[in-house]
Fold each of these.
Amino acid sequence: MVKTGVAVKKAEREIFLKNRLEELKTIENQLRAEGFQYIAGVDEVGRGPLAGPVVAAAVVLPADFDVLGVDDSKKLSEKKRNELFDAIIEKAVCYGIGQKDQQVIDDINILEATKLAMIEAIENAEKMLEEKLEKQIDFVLFDAMKIDAVEKPQQSLIKGDSRSISIAAASIVAKVTRDRQMIDYHRVYPHYGFESNKGYGTKAHYEGIVEHGITPIHRKTFLKNIIR
């Protein structure tokens, strides 16, 4: 009976994930019906941390993308994000990463740095698309962002990482890319808990700053109340 129950739950879970996948593909399917073929979903991670870069990803998925479980990266475990990252990279028509470090963030503010990272991600994805298929991205879906400098048809979706398969995929790619960088930074700066807090303002992180000062990857404009 236990095995039967487990099998039923597994089957129900698979049905749920398949339905969720089709739900997330609705916007892209509508755009394809309008004649757009290479639709890039764009998302970012790292606007809030005290340290490290802001990272953006742009992902173009094929119409027959069939990887189950892709969703808003915040809803997924670290293990699942890593598994899906590999599947997305393998199945994507193209993808690109963009990032801006703490110096750029301090110089022009986090919003403008985020926009630049997104533009860079789109440009890198388009380079891959041109090299592979000699095509260009013809529509961009942003998660709650509008960037006039991107001279392509575009749409801003509130909570886009929960509504669009392309944006959800981009959220995972951006999150895993940044998390891996912060784990690497932890090996260089071991006193701030970067391997677990990824640069966000946890108790351990603040204690590390008080005891050891700031590192070259800290955002000084985010620490005005601490550093004088």
Amino acid sequence: MTSQMRAEIGEQPDALRRTIDALLPRVPDIGALARETRQVLFVARGSSDNAAVYGRYLVEAHAGRLATLAAPSIATAYRRRLDLSGVLAVAISQSGKTEEIVETLDWARDCGARTVAVTNGAGSPLAEAAEVALITQAGAEIAVPATKTYTTQLAALSVLGLGLGAGVAEDDLRRVPDEVARMIALTEASPALPEIVEALAKVPGTVVSGRGIAFGTALELALKIKEACYLHAMGLSYADLLHGPIAVVDAQTPALLVAADSGPTLPGTVALARRVRGAGASAFGVGGGAELAEACTAALPGPALPEWVAPLGLIVPGQIMVESLARRLGIDPDVPRGLNKVTQTD
């Protein structure tokens, strides 16, 4: 029986196409705010926070602006006023109803920031609070683990990057929906999928690692493994992993390594795969092309996209793997225990 999560994974090409078509005309609106700001502050939680990590690397690597992740508790718990003049605050929430995120965006505006919202909730409190609302077109998402709402957030952040002056090609973004459709078919046909699922079903946890623009994908994949499969999953930059936590990688703790098929962090990911296997552990790849696949125990294919936009397709094999692993473990991936679709925090 097909889970709702798997059905929504399959809806991503259309959701992405709708979102990209709807949001690319907003580039001039973002550009107007860009002329009045110099740095970007991302406000998010959960999967949206992992999307923000992608946004941060995109803005810094390709638009040449300092970008940081907000600590919402500064606004909501400590209630400290900061000078945010010259800051573009970008709040990300799938529903647009998380009170902490709305309150933090209001706080940022009161502190002098210009404001953008990224949400799937048209008419939501977050959309109403922002000067520019980038409304994703994912449609209703029923399964608790975010899939199409996450990838459409990445699409919205790609548009944000274009509006902020990122020196990248719009045509790369337009190719994403077809590439995601190809990724779904390739992953489901890959002999590596059941091999990786079976291996992960026999261990208590895994380390998930990536770096740079792929780092947010590693964090999101680790989150999905935790929430849908109830396994321990540590999401780390491979630079941080090498600073000590790599000691946990062993025969009972494999590594999942995530990378685009090109870019400056690919060689380091390949070297990490070789080191992991040299230590007697399994290394499973997601993306990274033939070079990473050769270095790994087994690997799922990645999207044929430039690094800046690769995360929109790179998470898809991971989503399919997580859904398959949850069912292999006898877990309903649609309704993980203890979780709700909209999470409220203090």
